[in-house]
Design brief:
Layout (H helix, E strand, L loop, with lengths): L1 H22 L5 H30 L5 E4 L5 H12 L8 E4 L1 H42 L5 H17 L1 H11 L1
Antiparallel strand pairs: 1-2
Length: 174
């Protein structure tokens, strides 16, 4: 149940981030990247906390336990962060049935982190492509740079939010 919730949260977070990034002005270049990175960090932190609450509910001290933890929520959130990121420090050790959830969280965290990395790369690629187009137009001696650059930015925003145009653009780039 926690895995399903995390994957759905991640997907919905990507949907929201795609819309938010499309609506942002490209004049302030850093804003788009910062929204992307902080949005992804917030998603991962929320997912770590979801698993932390899951550990808190599942540990009963007899059949399932995390040795080295005092039983507080923050201990389980810390354990969840170590497992989610596949860091595996070894200072907290799961025992009993909770080990399955630990392995599942490690796999889920690995997949969601790589999914986020792919998403970040695709967004950066869009950003770099737009910057390259603006610089090419600026190098043309007869082009009215401010007007053409703003037209290119508007066109890029339009194709980012229009699925058929986005699909055509992706086919051309492959």
């Amino acid at each position: 149940m926690i895995v399903l919730s995390c994957v759905l949260l991640h997907y919905e977070g990507f949907t929201w981030l795609t819309g938010a990034l499309t609506r942002l002005h490209t004049r302030i270049r850093r804003r788009r990247i910062l929204v992307l990175i902080f949005g992804l960090l917030a998603l991962h932190i929320a997912e770590i906390w979801m698993f932390g609450f899951g550990y808190l509910l599942l540990v009963d001290g007899q059949m399932s336990d995390v040795h080295g933890a005092n039983g507080g929520l923050l201990d389980f959130v810390y354990f969840s962060a170590v497992v989610y990121s596949t860091l595996g420090l070894g200072d907290l050790i799961p025992s009993g049935a909770i080990r399955f959830m630990t392995g599942t969280e490690a796999l889920t965290g690995f997949l969601l982190i790589t999914w986020s990395a792919s998403f970040t790369f695709l967004e950066m690629q869009k950003f770099w492509r737009l910057e390259d187009r603006v610089q090419e137009v600026a190098r043309e001696p007869t082009a009215p740079v401010p007007r053409v650059a703003s037209r290119l930015r508007r066109a890029a925003r339009h194709t980012d939010s229009h699925p058929p145009l986005l699909a055509q653009r992706q086919q051309r780039s492959s």
